Amino acid sequence: MVERERSYLLDPLEGYPATVGATPAERLRTAHRAILDQGDAGARAALATADDLLAADPDLAPARVLAGQVDFALGRFQAVVDRLLPVSDASPSYTASQLLLGRAAELGGDLPLAYAAYRAVAAKSPLAFSRTGELHPRALEIVANRLQDNVRAHRLDAAQKELDLLRDWAPQEIRTFEAARALATTKGDRKAELAAVQGLAERRPGDRALLERRAELELEVGDPGAGLQIVQKLADSHPKDPELAEKLAAAKFRWRLSLLPPAVRDRADSPELTRADLAVLLYWLAPEVRYAKPTEGIIATDVLEHPQRDEIVRVVNLGLMEVDRLHRFSPASPARRATALHGLVRLIARFGGESSCVGAGAANPQPSQQFVCEAAARCGIVPSADDCAPGDALSGEDAIELIRRSAEGLARQP
């Protein structure tokens, strides 16, 4: 055994949290000295002692450590790891066990395991403390790389375990926040992504892309006021940037949404809206709907007892949504993009005047889908008619953006 490795072979009782009888303790210490002083012969004798003690008490952890020391002296590093991992789990502050496990894992090439073992007893062992400091950067790099590999392979449970390690070892380091963001993005967990982006933004205050993403997430799932403030500062710093001007308008709209009743905000977060949900969003997010006087007297027979009856009746009687021949609104049916776009085109046609962007055909009560898509594109509700996607389900986020763009379209009308 190389001389420098002897310092990793502590008295097997060092740091053991339980009491051991006098006779077993003396046998352990004698066998330990034999490993250090008598070479292979001492190691064989020590292994016999360990086997004898474990036969009498299979749970005697110092005897496992002694056997692990024999394996270590003989260069069997994986055998040490296999023996001591259960001891480490049961007694994480057991110095003799963790120091030996750390060195065996290190020599065997498992640096994260070595780092974890050293770290567990760094406050009690100067040697473990030293090794912890030296292994810290490389151990974190390896764990972060494993996390990225697991994310790419969509092994998200395994990636989460690696992230837990990073958070335990280096909760405030950039590498940890980057890993958390990568996993959150893959999971589609915007709140977790926001927490990671907040940490990164504090450490990279000049990163515009990061600030813009933080603003988006604050507006969606965090503090809308903070999100608006970020975008406002960016827009003030770049007054001629049209992209930031657009984002500022969107941020103001989203911030106003945050001031609305909780029931409205909840619908904004829904992954798939019903027709009743869409009516609620149209009512609350379009002032023209909320304050206009209906000109129709249409009755929707299936919403008389519905909790959102007032909102539904208003949008129906403004001609923004329809009932069927039997005067049924079908509030629980899924809303489609076609329904939203049709309603928003009608909104602009109704309140934008005769020369609105909707164009000829605005008065048609049953316009073709092609007309609706082309009008929505002309009014800036969608980028182009090809982006209409009329049959797609409608999420709250999608509906909010369509309503916001229709409000901009109304504001541009002569």
Question: How would you briefly describe this protein structure?
Answer:
With 414 residues, the chain is an all-alpha fold. 65% of the residues lie in helices and 0% in strands.
General shape: elongated
Gyration radius over CA: 34 Å
Mean of residue pLDDT values: 93
Spans of 5+ residues with little confidence (pLDDT < 50)? none
Span of the ends, CA to CA:
90 Å
Walk me through what this model shows:
- It is a single chain.
- This protein is an all-alpha fold and 414 residues long.
- It has 3 domains: 3-124, Serine Threonine Protein Phosphatase 5, Tetratricopeptide repeat (Alpha Horseshoe), CATH 1.25.40; 141-258, Serine Threonine Protein Phosphatase 5, Tetratricopeptide repeat (Alpha Horseshoe), CATH 1.25.40; 262-411, no CATH class.
- It has helices spanning 22-37, 39-56, 61-73, 77-90, 95-107, 111-120, 126-152, 156-169, 174-187, 190-203, 208-221, 224-237, 242-258, 262-268, 275-285, 287-291, 309-317, 337-351, 369-378, 396-411.
- 41% of the residues are buried.
- The model has no long low-confidence stretch (mean pLDDT 93).
List its traits:
about 425 residues; Serine Threonine Protein Phosphatase 5, Tetratricopeptide repeat
Task: Give the helices and strands, then pairings.
Blueprint (H helix, E strand, L loop, with lengths): L21 H16 L1 H18 L4 H13 L3 H14 L4 H13 L3 H10 L5 H27 L3 H14 L4 H14 L2 H14 L4 H14 L2 H14 L4 H17 L3 H7 L6 H11 L1 H5 L17 H9 L19 H15 L17 H10 L17 H16 L3
Helix pairs in contact: 1-2, 1-3, 2-3, 3-4, 3-5, 4-5, 5-6, 6-7, 7-8, 7-9, 8-9, 9-10, 10-11, 11-12, 11-13, 12-13, 15-17, 15-20, 18-19, 18-20
